[in-house]
Design goal:
alpha+beta, about 30% helix, rod-shaped
């Protein structure tokens, strides 16, 4: 009896074991068959997850709104951040500003005018100078008779410096007028001489003195002589002729405008003339 019960139990246990083994085998085959599809599903899920993540990010990202105060705070913070390096450098090693000398603008090249480029000057007489002179002849060249009274030659002249290139000196041109007379008796006899001429001279600074003007030149003019007789004699007579004279002289200016002159001449009136000059 006991043996039959034991055998029955063993059979039941053996069947149960076989059933379990069969179940395990079936389960193993089912897992093997379903694993590729599961991997495909896993890959699909893994591939879809980034897209879902991006979609979720895009969905969750909302446009930011800034208030005026927050914008101002951010601008101030940004400006402070940008200025921070400059302050750090300044605090670390203060750099002294390099002082550069102001460069003066280059002067424009001076364009000399034709008149200025041609102007030649002596110490006291130059291009554009004007000189008026008045003198008295000390030694005359008139053939007056002896006796009687006479007026020594008075000379009035004008000269202007030319703005032309003339070497180291200046050319001056102008005019001259001289007058003299002689009387004999009680007016029965009067001899009058007048001279009108052109004057040209070359002025050069021989003495290297700013106040001294030395020159030499020529006179060319017309001398007219008139003689008045008493009616008892021959009446009146006059004559004229062209005269050429060589001259040399000097002017010394005490001021910028006023000076004295001495002139030697071989003309018809006076050999030596002394007088005053005015320059303007």
């Amino acid at each position: 009896m006991k043996n039959s019960t034991f055998l029955h139990g063993m059979r039941s246990l053996t069947l149960t074991g076989l059933v379990c083994l069969a179940s395990l085998a079936v389960s193993a085959q089912t897992k093997t068959k379903t694993s590729p599809s599961t991997q495909a599903k896993a890959k699909t899920t893994a591939t879809a997850s980034p897209a879902k993540a991006k979609t979720a990010t895009a969905a969750t990202a909302k446009p930011k709104t800034y208030s005026a105060s927050s914008t101002a705070r951010k601008s101030t913070a940004a400006a402070t951040t940008r200025k921070a390096p400059a302050k750090t450098v300044a605090s670390a090693a203060p750099v002294k500003p390099v002082e550069t000398a102001a460069v003066a603008p280059a002067p424009a090249p001076e364009v000399a005018s034709p008149a200025k480029s041609k102007k030649q000057t002596s110490a006291a007489f130059g291009g554009g100078s004007n000189v008026i002179s008045f003198g008295l002849g000390l030694v005359h060249n008139l053939d007056y008779p002896k006796g009687g009274s006479r007026l020594m030659p008075l000379t009035f002249s004008y000269e202007r410096g030319l703005n032309v290139a003339a070497g180291p000196g200046t050319i001056g041109v102008g005019g001259v007028f001289s007058y003299s007379h002689y009387k004999w008796g009680e007016g029965d006899y009067k001899w009058t001489v007048m001279y009108f001429g052109a004057k040209g001279a070359y002025h050069i600074d021989l003495a290297k003195n700013e106040k001294l003007d030395t020159y030499a030149g020529l006179n060319l003019g017309y001398a007219r002589t008139k003689v008045n007789y008493d009616s008892y004699y021959y009446g009146d007579a006059s004559e004229g002729e062209v005269k050429v004279g060589v001259l040399a002289g000097a002017r010394y200016f005490f001021t910028e405008s006023v000076g004295a002159h001495l002139e030697l001449e071989s003309g018809p009136m006076s050999h030596i003339t002394l007088g005053l000059s005015y320059k303007f």
